Amino acid sequence: MTKVTIWNEFRHEKSDAEVQAMYPEGIHGQLAKFLAEAGFDTTTATLDEPEHGLTESVLEKTDVLIWWGHMAHDEVADEIVERVQQRVLEGMGLIVLHSGHFSKIFKKLMGTSCDLKWREDNSHARIWTVNPSHPIAAGIGEYIDLEKEEMYGEHFDIPAPDELVFVSWFPGGEVFRSGCTFRRGNGKIFYFQPGHETYNSYYNDKVQRVIVNAVNWAKATENSRPYYGHFKALED
């Protein structure tokens, strides 16, 4: 069974009544609920746990790590970021959600600022499927309509994605590359934009389906990481 670890800062839910009302069990709790229902072995980890809940033992057993962060990116210890990066290079999948675009781990793996335009104005959003044959888009159809979602707009300062699966449109006229895949070492990475903490995006069936599909796409394979360093000749 695929082992999924869901990491969340779990700060907004403790300090903001609106976020508490939207996600009473935390964003990680809502993610864990539908992922468990999809048949994954799910556990959660949060910022204020020892080692942020991401011990070597936890990461060693994790096939896919899901990351949500926003207000405390700088509080994530560099040692843990290095640990997560190493596991991605070894083959662990990583799914970065919404404001996780500014996390230390995503910026480290992308090698860019990962900055963007944003606006929170209680407007709707439409997420267009631009790569309908991709496994992450399975069962989604041509688009996802969200009643409310924070505007994220281009330019999104990331490397050119290996594959672009979704592009979002906002009523202010902005567009955004909202579903992007990358490969780093043996690991696969998916960035997905929806998930503002005061909106109900993680209750949306199609958003849930994308994340489930992304776990199946990103999960660790049996392919071993290549050997690096001094190498003895195979032939005489």
Description of the structure:
The chain is α/β, with parallel strands linked by helices and 236 residues long. The chain is 26% helix and 25% strand. It has 7 helices and 11 strands. A 9-stranded mixed beta sheet has the order 2-1-3-4-11-10-9-6-7. A hairpin with a 2-residue loop joins strand 10 and strand 11. The longest helix is centred in the C-terminal third of the chain and has 14 residues, at 205-218. The model has no long low-confidence stretch (mean pLDDT 96).
List the helices and strands and how they pair.
Layout: E1 3-8, H1 12-15, H2 17-22, H3 26-37, E2 41-46, H4 56-60, E3 64-68, H5 78-90, E4 93-97, H6 104-110, E5 117-119, E6 125-129, E7 143-146, E8 151-153, E9 163-169, E10 175-184, E11 187-192, H7 205-218
Parallel strand pairs: 1-2, 1-3, 3-4, 4-11
Antiparallel strand pairs: 5-8, 6-7, 6-9, 9-10, 10-11
Helix pairs in contact: 5-6
